Amino acid sequence: MNPDAITTVGVDALASGPSLFALVVQADAVVKTVMAILLLASVWCWAVIIDKAVRLGRLKRKAALFERAFWSGAPLDDLYRRLAREPDHPMALMFATAMEEWRETPRPVDPARQEGLLSRVGRVMRLTLDRELQRLERHLPSLATIGSTAPFVGLFGTVWGIMNSFQAIAATKNTTLAVVAPGIAEALLATALGLLAAIPAVVAYNKLSHDLDAYADRLESFAEEFGVVVARELDARAGA
Fold first, then answer.
1. Rounded to 5, what percent of the chain is helix, strand, coil?
2. Cα–Cα distances in angstroms (integers) from residue 64 to residues 45, 59, 91, 227, in the given order
3. Cβ-count burial of 173 within 10 angstroms (0-12 exposed, 13-18 middle, 19+ buried)?
């Protein structure tokens, strides 16, 4: 067959070929399943990204406002009375639980008991910190899972689409582009969907993990600072 004729047929087939939607509709059942999985993974990925980004941004702003109030010089009891009813972010919740332990425990004079009180205050803050971080990290590992598996799921769809192309060649005894184009198009579309799900997942997981670690360090620093404040208060009462 004349190569120029093959090229002309291929170009005409591409010009009048099916749309992207038609490719999806006409795709093999296996490729459709792969595309559906990747689309759902992409939607889930963006839902987690938006939720975590918005939540972390809001928590950082609230933490900044709380730290400003905490270091303003106002009595801690007044701050506790304002926040004890509805602590709406981890730093305020850590402060409220620590203040509850501090207020409910008699002020010891014995140094050993003072150390015990400081240890209990630090422990309740640590437990609150761990619990709140677990809530913030919920669903975050799914981004890593999507980022690592989506390309391979897309690759499976790619291989299946190419296999369909070879089967079409074998069935029609024809190697024109019009015969192999649908299968190749399905294969490339599956690859694109895999990358569409994987790339944002990997980038967002790295960024959100870094931001979450920085926020956790900020909470840990606050716990240590509050422990210093409590120790100073105990020292002042012991010296009075």
1. 85, 0, 15
2. 29, 9, 10, 19
3. exposed
Q: What does the alpha-carbon distance between residue 236 and residue 240 come to, in Å, rounded to a whole number?
A: 6
Rounded Cα distance, 201 and 150, in Å: 9
* Spacing of C-alpha 135 from chain mean position: 12
Burial of 122 (0-12, 13-18, 19+ CB in 10 A): middle
Domain segments of the chain as ranges = 29-239
- 15's tokens: 């010009």
Q: Say if residues 52 and 140 touch (Cβ distance below 8 Å).
A: yes
Q: How many CB atoms lie within 10 A of CB 193?
A: 23
What's the pLDDT at 80?
A: 84
Q: What is the pLDDT of residue 9?
A: 39
Q: CB of 183 within 8 A of CB of 217?
A: no
Distant-in-sequence, close-in-space partners of 232: CB < 8 Å, separation ≥ 6 = none
Full-model pTM:
0.79
Gap between the Cα atoms of 96 and 103, Å rounded: 10
Neighbours of 120 (CB within 10 A): 14
82-104 confidence digits (pLDDT tens): 776 778 899 999 999 888 888 77
